[in-house]
User: Which sequence fits this backbone?
């Protein structure tokens, strides 16, 4: 019986392919040629030319790749019962027995001793092998007491070091300083009372001088009793004239100083 057949393949009632070649039939799997294989895990329905139907699950997908002889398609694992099982069995080929390759029996090669290596090197005409001068020495180890003494000496050296000590870390801002600054006023000593500031207009100097002269003239007239009389001599004599001149000079002096 031939190892291949042509079957119709559907998925959930939809046609996947008609007269699809089924080959590579083995007791547990087969290969369906298809240009656009279904994803792994898809459950397909297969119908043979004899009218037998069975389901199969996609286990492997091979897409079209250049440089390979395998045609694109999908590996399937059928679920067989009754006549379908007999149909598959008559077309299935037994899987070839695995070839077991026995490992060669190799006799172990004994390792050459250092003396043999040196002898072989001397026999080859070498004058001197520097490895012959190497003498094995035991590794120096320290006892627990010696380790403790060394640690104690290191601690003593740290204690004698004047610079050794704890490092004091200062805060970025001292809270006490902030509280002290919060209770102080500005550098100029001015405290805001919350009232509006009154702005005066520009001072007119000429008006101030004129007002001062007016007040000075009124004060002088008040000394004479307000009636133009004087305690001194009257008349048109020289004394009166001199006195009048003296008072006018005094008023002029007061007006200028004001």
Assistant:
């Amino acid at each position: 019986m031939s190892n291949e057949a042509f079957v119709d393949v559907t998925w959930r009632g939809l046609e996947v392919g008609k007269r699809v070649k089924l080959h590579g039939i083995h007791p547990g799997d087969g290969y369906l040629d298809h240009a656009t294989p279904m994803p792994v895990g898809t459950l397909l329905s297969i119908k043979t030319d004899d009218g037998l139907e069975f389901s199969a699950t996609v286990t492997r997908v091979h897409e079209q790749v250049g440089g390979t002889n395998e045609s694109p398609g999908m590996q399937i694992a059928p679920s067989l019962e009754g006549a379908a099982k007999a149909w598959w069995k008559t077309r299935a080929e037994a899987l070839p027995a695995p070839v077991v390759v026995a490992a060669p029996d190799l006799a172990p090669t004994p390792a050459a001793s250092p003396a043999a290596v040196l002898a072989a090197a001397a026999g080859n005409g070498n004058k001197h092998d520097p490895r012959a001068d190497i003498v094995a020495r035991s590794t120096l180890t320290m006892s627990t007491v010696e380790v403790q003494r060394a640690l104690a000496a290191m601690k003593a050296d740290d204690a004698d070091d004047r610079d050794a000590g704890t490092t004091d870390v200062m805060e970025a801002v001292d809270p006490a300083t902030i509280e002290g600054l919060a209770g102080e006023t500005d550098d100029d000593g001015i405290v805001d009372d919350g009232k509006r500031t009154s702005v005066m207009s520009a001072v007119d100097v000429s008006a101030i001088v004129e007002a001062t002269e007016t007040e000075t003239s009124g004060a002088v007239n008040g000394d004479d009793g307000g009636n133009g009389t004087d305690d001194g001599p009257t008349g048109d004599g020289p004394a009166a004239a001199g006195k009048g001149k003296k008072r006018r000079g005094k008023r002029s002096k007061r007006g200028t100083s004001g």
Summary: Helices lie at 83-91, 114-123, 144-160, 175-182, 205-223, 238-257. Confidence is low (pLDDT under 50) at residues 225-229, 237-246, 249-258.
